[in-house]
Specification:
The protein is an alpha+beta fold. The chain has one domain (3-99): RNA-binding S4 domain (Structural Genomics Hypothetical 15.5 Kd Protein In mrcA-pckA Intergenic Region, Chain A), CATH 3.10.290.10. Helix content is 38%, strand content 17%. It contains six helices and five strands. It has a five-stranded antiparallel sheet with strand order 2-1-3-4-5. It starts with a helix and ends with a helix.
Length: 123
């Protein structure tokens, strides 16, 4: 089975097109090598996925016939992602602080209406 189809079948990506794009961008590696979307996946392959600033690592146990339900995903793969990968999600919190705070910068459409309403009342 192709790597893009496998990632879609095991619910790592919502569509095959998104999975194909991720593989083309180099966010997916098999046994440490960057691959093309058409690369075949075999049992015991080790797949590394970079998604949402987290490095997932999984081992292929079996190849599904088609897309499987969320409860059945563990039959086809073993997630061996280290816990440290999720602990670095604290960095995501710092990244969110980079964006502007509410009330700073350009007023929103609602703010503009409130300002216009206030100016109309004072005349």
């Amino acid at each position: 089975m192709r790597i893009d189809k496998y990632l879609w079948c095991t619910r790592y990506y919502k569509t095959r097109n998104v999975a194909t794009t991720a593989v083309k961008k180099g966010q997916v590696k098999i046994n440490g090598d960057a691959v093309k979307p058409s690369r075949e996946v075999y049992p015991m392959d080790k797949i590394s996925i970079r998604k949402n600033q987290i490095d997932y690592t999984l081992v292929v146990l079996d190849i599904p016939e088609s897309r499987v339900g969320a409860k059945l995903v563990d039959i086809y793969r073993k997630d061996v992602t280290p816990k440290e990968a999720f602990e670095h999600s604290d960095l995501l919190k710092f990244a969110k602080d980079h964006y502007r705070k509410k009330g700073t910068g350009r007023p929103t459409k609602k703010d503009r209406r409130d300002i216009d309403g206030y100016l109309d009342e004072t005349e």
